[in-house]
Structures are given as C-alpha cells and as structure tokens.
Amino acid sequence: MKNPIGFKEFVALMAMMIALTALSIDAMLPALTNIGADLGVIEPNDNQLIISILFLGLAIGQLFYGPMSDNIGRKPAVYIGLTIFALGCITSMLAENLTTMLIGRCLQGIGLSGPRVVTVAIIRDLYKGDRMAQVMSFVMAVFIAVPALAPALGQGVLLIANWQMIFVVLLSLGVIAFIWFYLRQEETLVKENRIKFSFANLGNALKEISTIRSTIAYTLAAGFISSAFVGFLNSSQQIFFFFFKLGEKIPIYFAAIALSVGLASFVNGKLVMKYGMVKMVKTAVLAIVFISIIFSLFMHFFTPTPSLALFMFYLLTTVFFVGILFGNLNSMAMEPLGHMAGIGAAIVGSVSTFISVPFGTYIGMQYNGTVAPMVMGFLIFGGLTALAIFVAKGINIESNSL
C-alpha cells in the first residue's frame, strides 16, 4: 500500500496543477512577436489574443469540469482536462496561421480549466474557512516560482530553438503532472457524495448560488480585479519590449513581478489566520486604488512617460496587493458552497473569468505606446472590486444575511 500524500507534497502537487495555467501564459510572452511574425499577424495588438483566448477557454471549460467532477469524481475530471490540454499544445505547435493558433490556445484553456477547478474543489473537500484560505495562499506561494521563471524559460527556448518548442515543453510538463497526480493523489469525493449530472441540477445550483449574496459579491470582485491583471498581462510584452526597450532582459522583470505576487500570497497565508479574510481584502483593494490614483496624477501633472524604476515600484506594489486578493476572494466566494464544491468552483471560476476576458482584452487593446491604459485598468477595476467588496460588507458569510 502506498504511503498517503503528505501536506507539503499535497501543496506542491496542487501548486503544479494550478501553475500549468500560469506557465502556459507567461512562457509565451517573450515569443509573441516571433509568433505573430511567423503567422503573418499585421496588427501588433492582435498578438495579445494569443494570451486572452486562453482565458476564454478557461471560462468555458470551468462550467463543465465542476459538475463533471461532482459526478465522476475529482481524479477522472483532471485526467480529461490534461488530455485536452495536450491536444491544444499539439494544435498550437503545428499552427501555420493565427486562427489555428487561437483554436489550439482555446483548447489549452479548456483543458487547463479541469485541474484549475478540481484543485480548488479538492482543497475545499479537505479544508474550510480561514484554514482553506491559508492552504490556498501556501499553494499560491509555491506555484509562483513557476511564473517567475516562465518568461525566462520561454526566452531560453527561443535562444536555442523556435517558438514551437515552447509548446513541447508545456506538453511535457502536462504529462508529468498527469503521472504525479495519478500516482499520489487519492480521490477526495466518495461515491455516496457524488451528484449525478443533469441540466436540472446545474440550473438548481445556479439558482441557489444566485441567492447567496456573499458568493455573488466576491465572485464579481474576483472578476473585476482579474480584469485589471489580464489587461496588464495582455499588454505587458509591448510595454516592456517596445516602451521600455528591455529586449532579452524582460524575464528578469517578469520574475520580480511574479515574486511580488508570490510574496503576497505567502504573507497572506501567515496573516489571514490572525486578521481574517475580510480585513485582508479590504486593506488590499483600497491600497490598489490609492496607489493607482497617486501614480495617475503623477503621470498627468509631471510626466506621461515615467522611468522604469518608478514604473516598477508602482507595479510591484500594486501586484503585491493583487496577490492578497487572489488568495482570499475565491475562498470567500466558495465558503458557503461546501455541499457542492465542484459545481460551485466551476460557476465561481467561470463567471469571474467570463468577466475578466472581455474587460482584460479591452484594456490590453488600448495600448497606445504608453503605460496609461494599464494604470487606468488597475484604477477603474480596482474601484469596481472595492465596490463589490464593500457591497458584501455586513454580509455574514456563514448565514449570508445582512
């Protein structure tokens, strides 16, 4: 009989499952210009679609994997997701035009939504409350090492091979995750607790969730702050490559950004048990809005082209507080949904992603050779996040009553 998985290995495995998504995004960033050139993309901003279409796939897929995992179990749902992810990697690797590339990237997103949703459901099966938030924060802190290194990985691949090899690396990591999960993770949803899938059950779940005010408010908040972050990701390659002309140094700055988010997740894991999730998110979102206002005013009155040092100070500080929000908002939205963790994670994740895709794409497409659209994205959608959180103020997460 194999030894049961320990806490540290569990955190590492869950981190890798989630990190596949971040890796599939960040490893592509240094290659966007090369891919666009090889695929005949004329408008540079259109290269951003290679990033944002993956988020669309995530939003679509999450609607299916939650109910699927509630029906057939957590592990089979992950197997299906990683298989679709592999097909998406192969499709993108063989793409000869932008349309085929986007189809492959969408398939990657649909596949990745399996481990993304099921990982949250597995954690919710095993933990709840502030303890769940702590585990999620530790998972975030561990997995952040991957996106910190991902741009350097992509850049390194480009130095010795073509951009297609990046998809070979992603495919290989997906296979490793599949084998590790298969061998070490036990099924966390016992057969007697499984829910037979039907559209009636899905409709009933949607109806129930629509009455839980705290879940709605925190899902909207997660979607709004993700919109700002997706907008940054979409335009980041152009900002660092064309505006700041960093060239092959770009991975260093992305590593700093990723480590800032990771540090926030680690700090949150330490502090959330003391101060609670509500206080942590309120502090973080107000900090994002305040910092963005100050930076916007500085650009307006002093210089529209801030120095790299000043911009990095703003960005590292902002994404630190975004990291605080990421670790908590999903847990807060999921807190009342323990009795339907799989479908609950699917709906919460899908709705928040559906919010972030169009808004994040819009923010990225506003890139005009300056950092102003990105900063305004954090300001406006940080404000909407604050509004959603403060609407939830006074709602008891356990009873969902005002």
Structural class: mainly alpha
What share of the residues does DSSP label as strand, in percent? under 5%
Shape: globular
| Strand segment count | 0
CATH superfamily: MFS general substrate transporter like domains
Number of helices: 15
Assign the CATH topology.
Answer: Growth Hormone, Chain: A
Q: Residue ranges: pLDDT <50 for 5 or more in a row?
A: 396-402
Architecture, CATH level 2?
Up-down Bundle
What is the number of independent domains?
1
Distance between termini? 50 Å
What does this structure look like?
This protein is an all-alpha fold and 402 residues long. The chain has a single domain, classed as MFS general substrate transporter like domains (Growth Hormone, Chain: A), CATH 1.20.1250.20. Helices cover 79% and strands 0% of the residues. The chain is built from 15 helices and no strands. α1 packs across α7, α12 runs antiparallel to α13 and α12 runs antiparallel to α15. The longest helix is centred in the middle third of the chain and has 31 residues. The N and C termini lie far apart (50 Å).
Quick take:
With 402 residues, the chain is mainly alpha-helical. The protein has 15 helices and no strands. It has a single domain, classed as Growth Hormone, Chain: A.
Task: Pick out its properties.
mainly alpha; Growth Hormone, Chain: A; disordered C terminus
Helix-strand blueprint:
Elements: H1 7-26, H2 32-38, H3 49-72, H4 74-93, H5 98-126, H6 129-143, H7 145-160, H8 164-184, H9 199-209, H10 213-243, H11 250-275, H12 277-301, H13 308-334, H14 341-365, H15 372-391
